[in-house]
Amino acid sequence: MIPWILRNRIKSLALLKESGVNPYPHKFDISMSITEFIDKYSSLHVGEHVENTEISLAGRILNKRSSSSKLYFYDLHGNGAKIQVMADARHSNMDENEFCKYHSGVKRGDIVGICGFPGKSQRGELSIFPRSLVVLTPCLHMLPRHTVTSNSDEAQSKKKTRNHSWTPGITRNPETNILRDQETRYRQRYLDLMLNSEVQKIFRTRAKIISYSRDFLDNLGFIEVETPAMTMTAGGAAARPFITHHNELNMKLYMRISPELYLKKLVVGGLDRVYEIGKVFRKEGMDLTHLPEFTMFEFYMAYADYNDLMGIIEKLLSGMVKEMTGSHKIKYHGNGFDSEPVEIDFTPPFRRIDLIEEIESRANLSIPKDLSSETANKFLLEACEKFDVKCLAPHTTTRLLDKLVGHFLEETCINPTFIINHPEIMSPLAKWHRSKPGLTERFELFVNKKELCNAYTELNDPQVQRQRFAEQLKDRQLGDDEAMVLDESFCSCLEYGLPPTAGLGMGIDRLAMLLTDSPNVKEVILFPAMKPQD
């Protein structure tokens, strides 16, 4: 059933069309944006008008009020900024009757074009005083309003909104939002962006994170590339892929779980420094920090190792946080807005802990050196049972170690922390450690107990790579459907020679969560995956 407001507004538009008026004009010429208007005229004095200047602006009306039939006030929003429109019949090109009739029909949500002059009201608010105002696109629905339960609540809400201007790195206050229902916000993101000023800032911050990362690598001589999103094998990470079908080739394809193997093929080809920013797809559970579709930032650097990358990522992240927030320290509601925020310090150098040594120290264990043995597997299973660490079947050594890392190490990583030197059995694409047998030159960067980056000195011996893939096959046969599969085309590529190389992958979504004080990953994704509504 069509809501009565929508039905009435459609009827009004039909009457306009019948009278020869087009309620959807094709174009409106603007002379400046609302942001430019504010920058240029905010220095005007209280009560000052510049009537000999004509300016045309456009935007969406989100608030309307009137003190008489000859004076209307609007809040005009556009591109994340807002100014007041002070529509006075004395300045209008319309006569008083036309003025009253037209402005009484302008609604919250309408997109309007205004020609007028700048000035400040007697209360000092920067305004545009229209000579003419035309509705460019009518809004056919009633927009939500800020819901309050009492006059004191309303006053408190206005005070919060006035005093709380959010910027990256500081805590947010969702109570200042006009639209608060989470389902509506995520399903109708256009309403969320329209009504909640912080939301536009969140996605502008996300865009700046990507721009900063891009510029950082460009200045180091990297080039940005694009690799296939559909592949014949799902390689480059330990994850379950989504499967699709190519009709023309009549073959099964996988949505990529990582661009890693393609990027290393480019390094073999002579592109020594490459990076890609793009979507990857993994069949994972959905929770506050996981979605099946997310944005990955990966780069590969020839003639470098994991030590070099630790320095590079420290410089990238500390510089980004400093530039975007003015400090190396941020506040983050990691446990939800109902809990106290934690302070996270991105001041370099970041803490480093050795994976095996730290587990042994914290759990008072002596883990067998040969992690590929049955003895090691049995030892780790008993350790998980001893410390009540849950690990679902299959109980492969890799999965058991990963659960112990989560239990003993990740919980200590509030400030950025490198967990380094993972066992070979956990790192099939990483190069063996040059001085610690059985380990690899790999690190994971954790912030606020969550993985942000994964990196290593790349394995470039094709024979060892085939052997690692074979070991992964054993885990897959035991039921681990996230174990990697053999990619023969990649192994063949390595036979032509991959130079000493280091590579890193970083999750853009999780980094955006940290810098925008968003405890739910859906807050930083414009259109997150949602269950269908009935």
TrEMBL record:
Transmembrane segments: none annotated. It is found in: Cytoplasm. Residues 148-177 are annotated as: Disordered. It holds the Pfam family tRNA_anti-codon. Its EC number is 6.1.1.6. GO terms for biological process: lysyl-tRNA aminoacylation. Keywords: Aminoacyl-tRNA synthetase, ATP-binding, Cytoplasm, Ligase, Nucleotide-binding, Protein biosynthesis. CDD domains: LysRS_core, LysRS_N. It catalyses: tRNA(Lys) + L-lysine + ATP = L-lysyl-tRNA(Lys) + AMP + diphosphate. Residues 164-176 have a biased composition (Polar residues). Residues 203-532 form the Aminoacyl-transfer RNA synthetases class-II family profile domain. GO terms for molecular function: ATP binding; lysine-tRNA ligase activity; tRNA binding. It is an enzyme of class 6 (ligase). Its main location: cytoplasm. GO terms for cellular component: cytosol. Belongs to the class-II aminoacyl-tRNA synthetase family. This is Lysine--tRNA ligase.
